[in-house]
Each structure stands twice: as structure tokens, then as C-alpha cells.
Amino acid sequence: MISIREKAKLKDKKILLRLDLNVPLENGKIIDTTRIDKILPTLKFLIKQNSKIIILSHVGRPKGKFVNELTLNPICEDLSKKLSQNVKLITKNINNINNKDLFKNNDEKIIMLENIRFYLEEENNDPEFAKHLASLADIYVNEAFSCSHRSHASIHQISNFLPSYSGLQLDLEVSALKKITSEIKRPITCIIGGSKISTKINVIKNLICKFDNIVIVGGMANNVIKYMGYNIGKSLQEENSDLIIKEIFSLSKKENCKLVYPEDIVVGKDLNGTPQIKELNEISSDEIILDIGPKTINIINNIIDESNTIFWNGPAGYFENPSFANGSIKIAENIIKNNKSNKIYSVAGGGDTVSLLNSLNAVDNFNFVSTAGGAFLEYLEGKELPGIKALN
Questions:
Q1: If you average pLDDT over residues 313-332, what whole number do you get?
Q2: Are 203 and 98 in a shared domain?
Q3: Which of 4, 254, 266, 335 is least enclosed by beta carbons within 10 angstroms?
Q4: Which domain-ending residue is among 139, 169, 199?
Q5: What is the phi/psi pair of residue 256, to 5°?
Q6: Strand, coil or helix: what is 232?
Q7: 206 and 283 housed in the same domain
Q8: Residue 166 in contact with residue 142, Cβ under 8 Å?
Q9: In this structure, are residues 153 and 121 in contact, taking their beta carbons and an 8 Å threshold?
């Protein structure tokens, strides 16, 4: 994998730049610009090289149809403001665009093609579609790590038709993940949340042999608490997870990896209910587990204090309601404290975790924060990502 930073002679070259600008939109307005902000250094680097930039990206899941609500226009406008230069959105059907149609005016430096997922050929990894995209440029750059687990035309197939490089942000993503998988500084701790244990079982199994501590929080922990014989009331749970949990416990014992789950919790009658701290044997049938309790917070924070590397994916509770955000906040604060003292290397990933850190203005206080979800987890599982494989 060669970085675009290592490529000489970029002046006047047409760069096909695949970004992931899949930001949350509400009534045509951007709710969270994290994904846009993270790729600005790459755009500024290419602008400085006097390259001509063709941006490919997607928003949402239009499934090969033109959906007005999923236009890239709001993103185009946001980028124009942040770069202080015009970013022109081309809404013409990509299949009808010719190389000669682009950059007709000398002042045009950056253009954006409309939502790439408006075309069925994209998700079908269609080679002819990829070949056509390639005909528009001289060089391809993948700056969409969060899409690199997808075998899509603009991620995978495209590299067969153009000299292909990694973007600056993708380089950072891979470097950060290497540090918590192959360049480990022990002790290393994984704090993992989310609602379904089955979606992260392979990640947990893959990390048990590499990590010293696996801390299970959030909705996933409910399944573990139930497995240990406690009533979890109306809490979020996943059916038929006992065999998975049994396997995790067995593997962690074999690999001498400490497995941690909540010892006390915070419940409510509903998502907006009054928080109550309870021991595991005190949960009523009409209650929902919505956060970890103070005893569990102390246990987790002690583990963080004794760690050299931290990977965090998934909040500790229903952080959207401040009444149930305490566990997640306390974990974040302690990681930040240790980070500022240079005691740990910290990596956080996943949409909910990023949202939480954004709400605390804490993104810059971690060594690395990834906006990737599926790609992040699949890389940790040890899978070879199609987008990365294509660059290699």
C-alpha cells in the first residue's frame, strides 16, 4: 500500500478521490461533520500540489435509485466553505460524463460527482462501471477506510484500471489499528459495547488471544448478566447467545485474558425514567438496564490506569439520555486523563462512540478516533478488507 504522499508529480493530474462523506442529514442539513473534517488534510494536500480533484462519495442507502433527500449538495456546500473555494457538484448521470467534460474552466479545481450509490453498478462491483470511472482521471486515491470492507466498484474494482494510492487519513487509520493489533504495548484493554454480542463475537474471539482485558458493557453486557443467572427485566437482549458467551468465557480462561462485565448497574422503568443504582440481584421484571453502576466504573477505571493501550468501541449505556451517560463519561474522562499524562495509547471507533466523544468535545484527546464501524471491526477480526487488498 503506497500513500499518495509518496507520489511525485501530482501537478495538473486528475485525481479520482474516493471519500466517505456519509454524514447524518436532517431536512437537508448536516448534523455531524466529523467525517468531512477528517478528510480536509488530504484535500488541502492535493490542492497544494495543484491537482485536479474528482470526489466520489455516497450518503445513505439509495439502493441504485436517485433519491433527492440523499443528494451530496449539502456536503458540497460545507466543503466549499471549509476549503474557501468552489466545489462544483455535477448531477449529470455518471455514465454519460466524459473526461473532456470536466475542468473546462481554469478556476475549477474540485468537482464532486453525485451520490455514487445512486448507481446499482457501484454495489455490484461492476468492472465496466469502474473502468468508466477510471477513464475520468489519471490517479485513484482511496480515502474511505470506513467503506473499505465493501467490494464496491469505486473501492475495489477501480484499482484494476488506475495507479492506486491510499489517502492520508486511511494511512492514519491503518497505522492506529496496527498499533493495537500487531504492534502491541501491553497491558492492552478492549472496552466493547453495542447491542448485539453476535455481531462482535469474532472481534472478541480474535482479540482475547492478543489482549489482557476485555471489558463488556452496553447492551451486550445484558446477555452476559443473564447468562450468569440474573434477571435482566425488560432490558435489551439477544436471543440464543448463551453458547457464544460460554465460548468467550472458555477462551478467555484458556488465553489468560481477564473478562470483565458489570457488577452493578443503573436501571430505569423506561428510556426516560428515573435512574436507580442496583446490584445485579436486585433488578425487577419491569426495569431496563441503561448504564453501569459506580462499582463497575471503578473497576473499569482501575483497569484503564493499569493499561498501556486502550481500544474502545461502544458506549457503556444509553448515553443519549444524560441520566444514563455517567458510565460512558467517566470512562472517557479517565482515558483522557491517562492520555494527557502519556501513560496510554488510546483508540476509539464506531459511530456511537464518536457521537459520545463529540458531545464531550473529547475527540482530540484520544490518540486516534475512527469514524469507521464495520471496516474497523472487520480489520480487528483479522479479515483482509477488499479496499486495502486492492491497494496492495
A1: 94
A2: no
A3: 254
A4: 169
A5: 60, 40
A6: coil
A7: yes
A8: yes
A9: yes
The arithmetic mean of pLDDT across residues 107-129, rounded, is 95
The pLDDT of residue 67: 93
ω into 187 cis (within 30 of 0): yes
307 and 249 both lie in a single domain: yes
Whether the per-residue pLDDT at 60 is higher than 80: the answer is yes
Per the rule left: phi > 0, alpha: psi between -120 and 50, beta: everything else, 275 is beta
Residue 26 has pLDDT above 90, yes or no: no
Q: Which residues contact 123 (CB under 8 A, 6 or more apart)?
A: 63, 64, 117, 150, 152, 153
Check whether residue 119 and residue 201 sit in a common domain: no
Q: How far is CA 24 from CA 77, 144, 279, in A?
A: 15, 16, 37
CA distances to 191, 221, 222 from 241, in Å:
19, 11, 11
pLDDT at 235: 94
Q: What range does the domain containing 301 cover? A: 176-381
Residues 193 and 316: beta-carbon distance below 8 Å: yes
Give yes or no: residues 88 and 210 share one domain.
no
Mean pLDDT of the region 63-73? 93
Report the alpha-carbon distance of residue 64 to residue 374 in Å, rounded: 21
Output 302 or 101, whichever has higher pLDDT: 302
pLDDT in tens, 202-244: 788 888 988 999 999 999 999 999 999 999 999 998 888 899 8
Confirm whether 386 is domain-assigned.
no
Residues 356-383 have a mean pLDDT of 86
Q: Is the pLDDT of residue 183 over 80?
A: no
The whole-number average pLDDT for the span 253-278 is: 95
Claim to verify: residue 158 and residue 259 sit in the same structural domain: no
Residues 199 and 162 in one domain: no
Of 144, 169, 194, which residue is a domain's last? 169
Number of separate domains in the chain: 2
**In a shared domain, residues 116 and 234:** no
